[in-house]
Amino acid sequence: MTVAEFLAFYPQFAGVFPEPVLREYVTSAGLRFDEFDEDAEEARRLFTAHRLTLYARTFPPSLEAQGGVSSFSALASSGDGTKITSKKVDDVAVTYASGNASSGAATGLSDLEETTYGLQLLTLLRLHSCPRYVP
Question: Is the pLDDT of residue 87 over 70?
Answer without folding.
Answer: no
